[in-house]
Amino acid sequence: MWTLGCLCLEFLCWALQGHVRKLQFDGERSTTFFYGAKTDVFFDIKCTEQSDDDSIVVEVKKEVTKKLDELHADAHCTDWMHDLLNMIEQDMLMVDPREWKDSSDLLKELRLMDTSCQKNDRYCLHSAVRQSVRRKQTSLLAQLNDVAKMNIRKHGTYLEGP
Description:
Blueprint: H1 2-28, E1 30-32, E2 38-40, E3 43-47, E4 55-60, H2 62-73, H3 79-92, H4 103-119, H5 121-125, E5 140-143, H6 146-155
Antiparallel strand pairs: 1-2, 3-4, 4-5
């Protein structure tokens, strides 16, 4: 579900802002990951207050939340795009997989969106001013496994502090 949310967000970024801005968004998310390579991930991993116990917190990147707001505010964003952005934020890009909407439920929503497109051109073709519906993002507390700890030591990768 997470990957589908990432792909949909990248698609909407490209559709509303173009190729150059999509590449810029990739760069804004760029992070040196545990294994030492730079990658354009959608989440941050941070140390906790009790970092001596190898606890980490996983959160959606601020750059991702900012991009969701930017796309909602885009003058060309249609109702269909707003609904997809809300679905991405509220049902897919949740760091805790237990908060993901079931794929069959998402499929039902996508089918309803498709039906709305078929019945009403305005839904998918005309700009619609709409406020972003912000869902409180949760953090996921986790423990580093031995492989992750080894890669951090090996590559000198550090985690952002609390």
